Amino acid sequence: QKIRGLPLSSVGLQDALVTIDLRTSGGGIFQGDLAADNQSMSGVFASQFGPAPFKLARKGDAHFDPPLNNAAIGKDLEGTWTGLLDIEGGFRLVLKMANQADGSSSAVVTSVDEGGLEIPATLKRDGTTLTMTLPIIGSTFTGDLNTSGSEIVGIYTTPKGLALPLTLKKSR
Predict the structure, then answer these.
(1) Which residues of the chain have pLDDT under 70?
(2) What is the SS3 assignment for the chain?
(3) pTM of the model
């Protein structure tokens, strides 16, 4: 699914048993035994679709992406925005944008219907047009802020190129 950097809600290790909780609607729990050489693990991934065996092998050193860094945004964009993505019965989204003390801004999209999954976003603004990229899942949203500053109307594009209408309404 080309997902990279998906946040995990918890990771545990007890003796050689590794437990990883992936908090999304299609997520579940990985439980596996870590090999004595710490280079592989095998076990079962349990989800709403049933159990599936897995085997993972370590390939190189761990890699952690740095936090996303956005330029400051206008006061008109700061706050909480909500919308409904019309796919698979609808996904409620909450976008929170805020300026930070260091002169940067943060943007996080919460997928309410995927267990409250929080996805950091990058922002780019050109006049009334806002482009938001969700690098973890490979999606983008480009929309225009209306003159009253109450809605951003645009298109959400999935990693597979599906273009869906999305209106984000300012709630506070």
Answers:
(1) 1-9, 23-27
(2) CCCCCCCCCEEEEECCEEEEEECCCCCEEEEEEECCCCCEEEEEEEECCEEEEEEEECCCCCCCCCCCCEECCCCCCCEEEEEEECCCCCEEEEEEEEECCCCEEEEEEEEHHHCCEEEECEEEEECCEEEEEECCCCEEEEEEECCCCCEEEEEEECCCCCEEEEEEEECC
(3) 0.74
